[in-house]
Design brief:
about 230 residues, alpha/beta, Rossmann fold, seven-stranded parallel β-sheet, 6 helices, about 40% helix, globular
Length: about 230
């Protein structure tokens, strides 16, 4: 179990959506410091928030941010991009950029902050997606499927060193990443953030945020046509 009280939390993608809600919720639960890491940092009203410049596609930027945040006890990999690119016809640059940002960036940052997490016996939180298990997101789904498996592998590697790893899997959430959808049916970012820290404090390994995610997850053991009925033969 990991307490938020007195923790030093590093949140990527912190300027809006789930990221901003994660910063606010960490402060509400007594975090001593929150590093709010984004490409273009903004000012925060709470002095406990430390804005950090971070580009997850730039290894040098990752190293600099990690060096500035060596007291981190909880790392929350939240930042992601959602380019709806076809694997067959979309620009290959979109696919590589998506994988670089959504998979390799979090992995590089986790490696850079691993010494801090080990020394504090802290926690890693990967904000993933229902699209880890549902291919309609195309390149995004590929990147999130990779992060799902990386989360599992990191959990095994960190376990002997006392570092807990939580994988978070929300369905559609009311953020700028998902424009033009029915926002009334979406998760509220504040609700997701609260559920994340509840799960972390309870020592959970995974958090399936909503009914959609639970339904998709349960279908993984069924024939592939359960998730993709269009593939079923007549």
């Amino acid at each position: 179990m990991t307490s938020m009280n007195g923790a030093t939390v590093f949140v990527t993608g912190a300027n809006g959506g789930i990221g901003s809600a994660l910063v606010d919720a960490a402060l509400e639960r007594g975090a001593a410091r929150v590093y709010a890491a984004v490409r273009t940092p903004k000012e925060w009203s709470d002095e406990r928030v430390v804005p950090l410049q971070l580009d997850l596609t730039d290894p040098d930027s990752i190293e600099q941010a990690a060096n500035a945040a060596g007291d981190t006890t909880i790392l929350v990999n939240n930042a992601a991009i959602f380019l709806r690119s076809s694997l067959l016809t979309g620009p290959i640059e979109d696919i590589t950029s998506t994988i670089e940002t959504n998979l390799m960036g979090p992995l590089r940052l986790t490696r850079a902050l691993a010494p801090a997490l080990r020394s504090s016996k802290g926690a890693l939180v990967n904000i993933n997606s229902v699209l880890s298990w549902f291919a309609v997101g195309k390149a995004h789904s590929v990147s999130k499927a990779g992060l799902w498996m990386a989360t599992n592998a990191l959990r095994l590697e960190f376990a002997p060193e006392g570092v807990s790893v939580l994988g978070v899997y929300p369905g559609p959430t009311d953020t700028p990443m998902q424009p033009g959808e029915d926002r009334a049916t979406m998760n509220a970012p504040a609700d997701v953030a609260a559920a994340v820290y509840d799960a972390l404090e309870a020592g959970e390994h995974e958090l399936l945020v909503d009914d959609m995610t639970k339904k998709v997850h349960s279908a993984l053991s069924a024939p592939v046509t359960a998730l993709y009925p269009a593939l079923a033969s007549d």
